[in-house]
Amino acid sequence: MRVPEDTIKANEGLRERKRRQTRERIADAAKTLFLERGFDATTIEEIAAAADVSKRTFFDYFPSKEDVISAWQDRFGEVMAEAVLARPPGESLIKVVEEALIGSVLVSAADPQALALGKLIRETPALRGREQLKYVKLEQKLAEALAARTPDEANRLRTRLLAMIVVGGMRVGGECWHEDGVPEDVEGFARDIFAAIWSELAAFGRLGGEC
């Protein structure tokens, strides 16, 4: 099982804690500047100055500005994986996936900075490719977390397929979200997406039986 982040922070040494704090300070400074000035208009020198580090130190933690965005996007996958592993033992994978992902989406939707950064990514050509990569990483994270709950090798294909289907549904739901604006009832919107996923899978199963 995954060790909770709070436990990792409690057990880390002074050097590791300082590195984590420096990385977080750089990332926070970068995100603030991106939202104030735009991604393309923000320089690495400005980020380093705002974080009170040297340009060299910036590169010790992030190879590029784009990698700051990737690190922020990866955090959603980590939260999602932690939520999957925290679900009660014996719960069905369908229930685990739906509740864990909806909980993670609600946390993200309640963060104004997260919403603003998502909008920035979609509106910045240099970052749009990262948005697609985000879903690839999410699928991998979800598959790994589900596999950790069902370590039997016989279930490995099943968990990978479930992760692929669910993340695909998330992508479609995200596109609808961005086209129509943030829904007033985020949880209701997310549950409607899951209801559509499960309904269509059942329909495909019936079609398969007719062939």
Automatic annotation (TrEMBL):
Residues 20-80 form the HTH tetR-type domain. Keywords: DNA-binding, Transcription, Transcription regulation. PROSITE patterns: HTH_TETR_1, HTH_TETR_2. SUPFAM superfamilies: Homeodomain-like. Residues 43-62 bind DNA. GO terms for molecular function: DNA-binding transcription factor activity; transcription cis-regulatory region binding. InterPro entries: DNA-bd_HTH_TetR-type_CS, Homeodomain-like_sf, HTH-type_TetR-like_transc_reg, HTH_TetR, MftR_C. It comes from the Bacteria. It holds the Pfam family TetR_N. This is TetR family transcriptional regulator. It comes from Bosea caraganae.
